[in-house]
Amino acid sequence: GKESFGRLWSLSGGCPVGQSSSPKNAGRSGALRAPPRSPPMSALGPDSCALGPHATGKQDAQHLCNASFASATIYYPTESGLKSLPSVVIVGGWGCGEQAMAAWAPFYASHGIVAMTIGTPSPFTDSPAVRSKALLDASLALQGEHERADSVLRGRLDISRRAVQGYSLGGGGAQLAALADPTLKCVIALAPDGGYMFPSKHSLSFPSPPPTAVPVLILCGDNDEEAPPKKFGWPHYRQTGAAKLIFEVEGGDHYTPLGPAGGTKHQAEAGSMSMELWCVNCSTICACWMCQCPLALWCTPCPCATLNGPTGHAADRAPRGAIGGVALAWLRLFLLDDETARSQLVLRPDIASGFECSGIEAPLAMDRS
Question: pTM for this one?
Answer without folding.
Answer: 0.83
